[in-house]
Structures
1.
Amino acid sequence: MSHAFSAVKMIRLIGGAVVLDFINTCNGRRPNSSLDAPQDRLNSFQFFFEWALHASLITHAEYEAYKSSILDSVFPFQPCLKSVVDFRESLFRIFYALSQEQPVTPEVLQPLNDALERGNAWRVLTVKNGLPAWGWKHCSTVDELATMLVGRLAVQAESLLTGPDLQHLKCCSSLECDWLFLDSSKNKQRRWCQMSVCGSREKLNRLKHAGGAL
Ligand SMILES: [Zn+2]
């Protein structure tokens, strides 16, 4: 197991959808964030590739097929990383606005439309259990892989945006956290990305504040 993979496994997957977990690979972007600067976990394309397996964006078979061309390379694949990160930030703008019940404009959706169009070239009808199903073509270069994976995330984003689960989209209530998630709780009262992380910290802050005021 590589060092990067042990680090990537520490990243919590709490979004309830892979595309939300993808957006949650960064924090500190909400306009009223209490963090001084955004904290981005995607600092190399290699790390993104490891994350893709961790978050089940790719299968183990795909990981095995592509890993030597990515993980054995000292090349930083900077343009590929930039296209992935830029796309993630365009998704954050869409999903964060919707989580705050703010409208989105066609301009805000344009990068997603562009990614869908580029990614479409990599989609292929294939056969799964004897039935036609969407699959993805094999990529020969890392550039192609970046486009294909962005396309795959774009398809997931599009289906979440136009599907019934969108009504359950929320953003963590902590100003230290802008993670997005689908509230699948029974009473739909979930406030935190995770009670054990942001919920506990906020509770502790409130207790400290109350203690200091005595
Ligand atoms: Zn949180």
Note: The pocket of zinc ion is lined by residues 172, 174, 177, 179, 192-193, 197-198 (CB under 6 Å).
2.
Amino acid sequence: MSRQEVKLSDIGVSEEVMEKYMVSLETGVGDSSRHVCICGHLLNRHVNAEANPYCSFGKSLCLCSEPIAVIEAEDLRFFGYSTTGLGKKHALSKGLFAHNRRGKSARWLIERECFKCNQTGVPLLIASLGRQRRVTQSSGQFNALLCSNCLYECGGSWEID
Ligand SMILES: [Zn+2]
Ligand SMILES: [Zn+2]
Ligand SMILES: [Zn+2]
């Protein structure tokens, strides 16, 4: 009888991979199907139609044509709101609020910086931008975290209340 110590690597699995996987089973974090796009909807709901890519969620349609995975969330059921403006009116804010309120955890997948001037360490606001990259009050082709200067340049005003 062999007395060799059993290691995970004996069965083709590394400690590191296993650690991440087990944590993801418990928390739901660490799984790419749990990625939320900056538009506030699930990354895997984006349709890559050639001329007009868009994002479909529930009964509504979102114009997001440049999906970016920004958040990994424990529970995806909360990310189905519509964008009706920037900041608190953006779908990502509404979804995250509903999600966190239920005690669920989420983590950033990106470095938080202004998408336009790349400044970090400054307050940023989530905004929806139309085709001309101007702030829009409904869903837009683009969504971005913007610093106050860049938001102003895109035709928005800093609304934090
Ligand atoms: Zn999107
Ligand atoms: Zn969307
Ligand atoms: Zn900026």
Note: DSSP finds three helices and eight strands in the chain.
